Amino acid sequence: MPCPKATSGNSTPLSQLPFDGDEQQVLRIARMFFRSFAVPDSQAWIGGVGAALERFDHLAAPHIYVATLGAVQSMRQARRSVFCFNDPCCEDCARSVTDSERLFLGGLRAMRDQAPDRAAAFATILCEGNDCGPWLVALKTLAAQMPPRLAPGKVELRPEAEVSWRR
């Protein structure tokens, strides 16, 4: 039976959004941090380490993990209201993205596209008009740690053999 929270009206199926696999994995890492803050006894942040290593090689994963935490923390300091996130530990919920998560990923995508003005627009909304400068710096840092985005229409290939030699 599907999770009733997963069918709430405030989420969009991840499959309907343009975010690539790397951005989706950053969302998964960020959700582990969000869950840790919401339910400290869950120690979900530990799962974020595994999520980073699952997608990124052993050289990049720790940097992406820490940069994701930096982006999460700077965003949390700027916002005044609750950041709504979907539970990464629920398969049904994890397949959807909240409006807040979509803004977070939109800012990241803009930084990866080297479009700081577009990132600033996402930041202004996500940070509720508060000082979003630190979040933009954190996003730029995170984007710099990530693999480059593929051109539109290109197929993303990540054969296990190509990635496993780095582990």
Shape: globular
Main sheet record: 2 strands, antiparallel
Rounded radius of gyration (Å)? 15 Å
| DSSP helix fraction | 55-70%
Low-confidence segments: 153-167
Order of H and E elements: EHHHHEHHHH
What is the rounded distance between the termini? 37 Å
Q: What strand line-up does the widest sheet have?
A: 1-2
DSSP strand tally: 2
The count of helical stretches stands at 8
Structural class: mainly alpha
Average of the residue pLDDT scores: 87
Strand content: under 5%
What does this 3D model show about the protein?
- The chain has eight helices and two strands.
- The protein has helices at residues 21-38, 45-55, 61-78, 91-94, 99-112, 116-126, 133-145, 160-164, and strands at residues 11-13, 96-98.
- Strands 1-2 form a two-stranded antiparallel sheet.
- The model is unreliable at 153-167 (pLDDT under 50).
Describe how the helices and strands are arranged.
Blueprint: E1 11-13, H1 21-38, H2 45-55, H3 61-78, H4 91-94, E2 96-98, H5 99-112, H6 116-126, H7 133-145, H8 160-164
Antiparallel strand pairs: 1-2
Helix pairs in contact: 1-2, 1-3, 1-5, 2-3, 3-7, 5-6, 5-7
Q: TL;DR of this structure?
A:
With 167 residues, the protein is mostly helical. The protein is 56% helix and 4% strand. It is globular.
Short descriptors:
8 helices; mainly alpha; disordered C terminus; 167 residues; globular; two-stranded antiparallel sheet
